[in-house]
Amino acid sequence: MTGERAHHPASPENRDLPLGLQRRARRLAWVYLIVAVGLIVWTVFLALSLPKENLEHHYRLTWAGFDLIEVLAIYLTAHMAFRLDARVVFPATVVATLLVADAWFDVTTSATAQAAIGALILALAVELPAAAFSLYVAYRVGRRVRELAHLEHVTGPDQPVPDQAQAHPALPSDSASPVGLPPEK
């Protein structure tokens, strides 16, 4: 096999996806993988630098454990994106949820005003935008799956999916989107 597909084999049902979509999915996977590796480094730093006990017992374990769960969710998102697996919506949604929770607890458990300001800046600059991006990824993949499922239902499994240039009874004449779905903007 040559070209792009030789580097990261997609699952058999996804090999027919457009090459541009495959490239975007792989770039997305690399972003999540790099973030997961960076978060591992951050978790090790926290595990070594946070006080052993604070108001709660096992303070280090609490935060290091939470960050490891984030690493796992981010890694699973990267893994599924590399495989062009539509189930990437699940770990991407989990990543967003964990990032919002992380931002909230970072801000609300800060011991000093200076630490709270630093946590708020991190939340606004990194964690919340990353959470929004992960939700966007989940939304876009889910929408694409619904569109493809609708076209599969309309055309049948053995018939070619019509392109925008072809007329199809399920497509309104002034729009390329399936009936029941709003046109893509």
Explain what this protein looks like in three dimensions.
The chain has 185 residues and is mostly helical. The chain has one domain. 64% of the residues lie in helices and 0% in strands. The protein is built from 4 helices and no strands. Helix 1 runs antiparallel to helix 2 and helix 3 packs antiparallel against helix 4. The chain is elongated and about 60 Å long. The N terminus is likely disordered.
Tag the structure with descriptive keywords.
single chain; 64% helix; mainly alpha; 4 helices; 185 residues
How would you summarize this macromolecular structure in one to three sentences?
The protein is mostly helical. The protein contains four helices and no strands.
What is the topological layout?
Elements: H1 19-49, H2 59-82, H3 89-108, H4 113-155
Mean pLDDT: 77
Helix content: 55-70%
Which segments are poorly predicted (pLDDT under 50) over 5 or more consecutive residues? 1-8, 164-182
What is the count of β-strands? 0
Q: Could you describe the largest sheet, including whether it forms a barrel?
A: none
Amino-to-carboxy terminus distance: 36 Å
As for the number of domains, it is: 1
Give me the secondary-structure category.
mainly alpha
Strand coverage percent:
under 5%
C-alpha-based Rg, rounded = 21 Å
Total DSSP helices: 4
Element pattern in H and E:
HHHH
Approximate shape: elongated
